[in-house]
UniProtKB/TrEMBL annotation:
Protein name per the record: Thioredoxin-related transmembrane protein 1
Molecular functions per Gene Ontology: disulfide oxidoreductase activity; protein disulfide isomerase activity
Listed Gene3D superfamilies: Glutaredoxin
Transmembrane segments: 6-23, 177-200
Length: 230
């Protein structure tokens, strides 16, 4: 009887170990992308979700997206997420206007996914190559284009200004109008400095150009006289 109890106990332990191994093997395979490593998505096949922690729709999608990521190796696709609150530059680079937004990427070609938001739909989108029926993002909106790089810069600048604004109000007790006044003064000063630098460069250019033109005219007039130096 004691032997049977021991065998049952051993069987239960082994079974729990197998279950635990199975659970750990199906853990989330999500890849976190940000402004430092986003270029990884330019090679291979990806499904990328842009989200924000405060977004209710993103929170609702999270379990499905996590489960979908556990099949990433079987499907041969990398499943990733981008938190736009910590990567505002990517928010601008991809022109994300609604949350969550999902992109399919394969070998640098971007397509926006607009299908159902569940694991089965994501898997069939990859397995059946339904992305082939979706129009690619135009060249001028491509995330690595010069235009979108500029947009990305301004999004980051806007985010940094917002952080400074909040810090001035929360930590230093500055009223909202006081913060705006500081930004206005700084903007005017920077604009004046840039204007003076540009004017100085332009003035220097015209001085050199007029002097060169004057010298050329004098030389042409002298040669035109036909004088000969002996």
């Amino acid at each position: 009887m004691g032997v049977n109890s021991y065998l049952r106990f051993s069987f239960v332990v082994v079974w729990l170990f197998v279950l635990n191994f199975g659970c750990t093997s199906t853990k989330s395979q999500l890849i976190r992308l940000n402004e430092d490593n986003w270029a990884k998505m330019l090679t291979g096949e990806w499904m990328i979700e842009f989200y924000a922690p405060w977004c209710p729709a993103c929170q609702q999608l999270q379990p499905q997206w996590e489960e979908f990521s556990t099949w990433s190796k079987d499907l041969g696709v990398s499943v990733a997420q981008v938190d736009i609150t910590s990567s505002p530059g990517l928010n601008g680079r991809f022109m994300v206007t609604a949350l969550p937004t999902i992109f399919h990427v394969i070998n640098g070609e971007f397509r926006q996914y607009k299908g159902s938001r569940d694991r089965e739909a994501f898997m069939s989108f990859i397995e059946e190559k339904r992305w082939e029926n979706v129009e690619t993002v135009p060249a001028w909106k491509h995330p690595s284009s010069v235009q979108m790089s500029v947009v990305s810069y301004f999004f980051k600048l806007s985010h940094n200004l917002r952080v400074i604004h909040n810090k001035l109000m929360e930590e230093y007790g500055l009223p909202s109008w006081g913060s705006y006044l500081i930004f206005a003064v700084v903007t005017i000063i920077l604009g004046a400095i840039l204007g003076l630098v540009s004017f100085a460069d332009l003035n220097n250019y015209y001085e050199i150009d007029v002097f060169d033109h004057f010298c050329c005219c004098c030389y042409s007039a002298y040669v035109g006289r036909g004088d000969v130096l002996v």
